[in-house]
Amino acid sequence: MNFHIGDTVYFQEYWSKNFVEGTITELYDTGGMRCNNCYFVNQDGVRIGKMVGTVGALPGEYFSTVRELANYVEGRDHARVKKMKASIKNLNDLLAFPLSHCFCGEEYTDEDAIKAYKERTFELTGIHLGDFEEEMER
What we know:
Elements (H helix, E strand, L loop, with lengths): L7 E5 L6 E9 L5 E9 L5 E4 L4 E3 L4 E2 L2 H22 L3 H6 L14 H15 L6 H6 L1
Antiparallel strand pairs: 1-2, 1-6, 2-3, 3-4, 3-5
């Protein structure tokens, strides 16, 4: 899709994983872009907060609708989880996995790695690790 300066686009902020709506102010030869007048939006495209400053997105990672963005993110994340799960072949791999992935680093936390680890743990051992939110409610 061809985007132009002034177009409204949707993308996922890398470090927070929030969906963002913004107005393109710069397009780069590399295919990336920079936006201002940005808002955090939910998956229905409803604005839920204003951002300050400008923010950018990489080529192929910004879209004309929030639905396109949500579909892209879902597919990308599913593929990452599948690839990570495939790398955990046995108990040794399972025990080593958290040492090479960030499980608790605020904006650096790799949620896909956590999902892959929990799913593969259950598949290999039958142990359900649960959710952090579930544990906090107990």
